[in-house]
Amino acid sequence: MTHSTDFSRDPNRPALRAHLRTALWLAEQGLPVLPLREGKGPMGNCRACRNNACGGRPNMKTPGPCACASPCHAWAAATTDPHILTSTAWAAAWQQAAAVAYHPGGSGLTVVDLDNAEAIAWARQHLPATRTVPSTRGEHWIYLGTMTSPNAVRPGVDIKSLMSYARWLGPSTGTTTPLPGVVRALAVKEPTAARPASSAPTVSAPAGGGQCPHRSPAYLERGIAMAEQRIEDAPDGIHRTVFRMFLAVLSAHGRCGCLTETHVRRLFTAAQTRGESLRHCEDAWTNARTQLGM
142 and 110 in contact (C-beta within 8 Å)? Predict the structure, then answer.
């Protein structure tokens, strides 16, 4: 996918509503965009998808796009298609929009969101210079490359890349630098005595044997990705969240044989990144299988 990382020129489109005009210009640059409501949150799901009626797609982690006509499902709704952006289904969202957001990972970018002066001072000391743009309270530093999108990797610092969105703040300055290892390392929790960082699970995926109910390989991928995202986003109660996600994955995918050791390792990695020990992961997996009678 080709894209431009030069966001320094201003949009110049016909006389459309300001946010839509900006969105169309950004889409031309290769940035998948979506409208944000008041409070910087994404638009609510459409009627058919409310309360997870669509199967949990509000937490999609696949690259998108969202299958709904209206801008559902947060970052997964982001698009570069001008026909979608100007469609009747999106018109109401643009009328209500308070800002425009984009999916950095969808265009091969990572945004380091520095939320205050202390975070900016830390970045200037530890991170390579790159393209930057002022935010309400701090700055966004934009790098070329993608990674996961954890919040609070250190005080006042969030990362927005894959499966995330960043608010468009206007033209930026500087030269875009390739995503450095020091930024990637921010997403990895420091290992503790209870959890070697590279430890692999000793549990196994269920053997299966039942009839596979999956509509496509993407259905299983969305299930694993959703569990990873919910573990990653859990504000607290990580033990409980890990067990619930393991239970949900096993309940949906554990009896047909589609779940592989690779999928198990992904779930364990997500949990360990949040500080969960390998032992706790293995116990949660075993307990989930026991509760389901596997």
Answer: yes
